[in-house]
Amino acid sequence: MSLSRILDGKVCIVVGASSPKGIGDATVRMLLDHGAKVVAAGIVMNDDIIARLLSGCTDSEIPRSNIDGQICDITDFGQCQALMEAVVDKFGKVDCLVNCAGIVEGCAFSEISSDKFDRMTNVNLKGTFNLCKAALQVFERQGHGNIVNLSSLAAQRGGGLAGGAHYAASKGGVISLTRSIAREYGPMNIRANIICPAMIDTEMLDGFSAKRQNEIVESIPLRRVGLPSEVAGTCLFLASDLSGFITGATIDVNGGAHIH
Ligand SMILES: NC(=O)c1ccc[n+]([C@@H]2O[C@H](COP(=O)([O-])OP(=O)(O)OC[C@H]3O[C@@H](n4cnc5c(N)ncnc54)[C@H](O)[C@@H]3O)[C@@H](O)[C@H]2O)c1
User: Fold this and answer.
1) Residue 1 — very low, low, confident or very high, per pLDDT cuts 50/70/90?
2) Which of 31, 32, 74, 227 has the fewest Cβ atoms within 10 angstroms?
3) Which CATH superfamily is domain 3-253 in?
4) For the CA of 102, the nearest atom of ligand 1
5) Is 225 within 8 Å of 206 (Cβ atoms)?
């Protein structure tokens, strides 16, 4: 198998794939380019988004039948279950779930109202729980599976960049949840890993002034922001059998911003 076809035969779901500049968008294209069949899911999903994803692939000959789209609001467990079942109906199995869905909000601790906290944890943590639970039902049945969850540097260093304490806490929960899944489901041939990105050039960075971005970049050893494709490359590695003995791991994609 050539490296470029490393995901031949695999069926992957990427959730949070609606934003044109997002990590989910780049991940869908990366997985398609490496041979996977991909279901792109998000709170918004339509034929225009699918056409955009396909036209952004490096390989211009990927058949339309290799990609499907599904609407899924991860705060609704029923929609997460419906997503999994739709993928099994269409492609016969699910090999890997990549969860890129998330929200961020920057604010001081004293300004985090109960409603703000609930909204944040409902999407980032409960939503991840909903998706993983729905996927694990399929994974157990089929005897294998693989989860990649997106957390954040904020969870590791106590917030301080884009998100407030509620964002950091929700992403810390994603790490603990994913590690627990890795431990409990490893004996069932199911892997689960975490990616902690930081300062990736997506809409999440649009809230920073140019001055603030420059200040942050000065503190990053690689002296630049990251590209969505660089997180997508890590998703590719974790989705593939190259990472077959890796589970419960937290992989930093942060240009050295947090060396620990
Ligand atoms: N960009 C960064 O620097 C950075 C840093 C650390 C962590 N992350 C994490 O990476 C992931 C992707 O971030 P991004 O920068 O591509 O952001 P983004 O805003 O471009 O993408 C987030 C996606 O999540 C979707 N989403 C939000 N709520 C949803 C819901 N209830 N159900 C389904 N989908 C929902 C949005 O529609 C969007 O497509 C997020 O989990 C984010 O927290 C990003």
Assistant:
1) very low
2) 227
3) NAD(P)-binding Rossmann-like Domain (3.40.50.720)
4) 41
5) no
